[in-house]
Specification:
This protein has about 200 residues and is α+β, with helices and mostly antiparallel strands. The protein has helices spanning about 20-30, 50-65, 70-80, 105-125, 140-145, 175; strands at about 10-15, 40-45, 85-95, 125-130, 150-160, 180-185, 190-195. Helix 1 runs antiparallel to helix 4 and helix 2 packs across helix 3.
């Protein structure tokens, strides 16, 4: 788990996961927490024969945002569709199943499923990355992936063999993101003090 790192899609090359490996990667997603067993998320694999169409969607989305984009910028937008041997779109459904379960819970579940996918890919020896961008909200992309009005395109997942790894980024210390809730009575009221669990610090966080 701690060895997982983001490898830019342009540094992910063939071979990608074979059929059995892909099945293991996708099966890992099923162990994500899922309140109400809604299965509010899904993954859409982009096969090689659909990459050119996705490339056109990326190019069109760029030109819609910036009509003065240069040919080089448009070509770069197109090229993103052809990076990494395995490319998938992660989608979350805001309405499927029990409508009382908030979108935030659905997105958390999807995030857990995505992380499981990344971890299994790492365990199998592959590199991976998540990519997003304004094209995810483009109508052309929604049309290509047949997304319903309640569907949210979260990110693309790229998986492949690592061509060139970079040094692992500095991980944040637990003292930076783990705190202990302490409640102290003060003049008949309660004051909530957030202190680091592992490193005692002065003052209120």
């Amino acid at each position: 788990m701690q060895s997982r790192q983001t490898i830019l899609p342009k540094r992910l090359v063939a071979p990608g996961p074979d059929t059995n490996q892909l099945e293991q990667i996708l099966e890992a997603a099923a162990s994500a927490p899922d309140h109400g067993q809604l299965l509010p998320w899904r993954f859409i694999v982009v096969p090689d024969n659909a990459r050119a169409r996705l490339a056109q969607v990326f190019a069109d989305a760029l030109l819609q945002r910036d009509a003065e984009a240069t040919p080089a910028q448009v070509a770069q937008a197109r090229e993103k569709a052809h990076r990494s041997p395995l490319l998938m779109l992660a989608v979350v459904d805001a309405q499927h199943g029990n409508p009382d379960i908030d979108l935030s819970e659905r997105i958390v579940s999807a995030g857990c499923a995505i992380q499981n996918v990344l971890l299994m890919a790492t365990a199998l020896g592959f590199g991976s990355a998540l990519t997003s961008g304004k094209a995810l909200k483009a109508q052309g992309l929604r049309t290509l992936f047949a997304l319903a009005p309640q569907d949210h395109a979260l990110c693309f997942i790229s998986i492949g063999t690592v061509l060139a790894a970079r040094p692992t980024r500095l991980r944040p210390k637990t003292s930076e993101y783990v705190h202990t809730l302490q409640v102290a009575e003060l003049q008949g009221t309660c004051t909530v003090v957030m202190e680091s669990t592992f490193t005692q610090r002065q003052g209120v966080r």
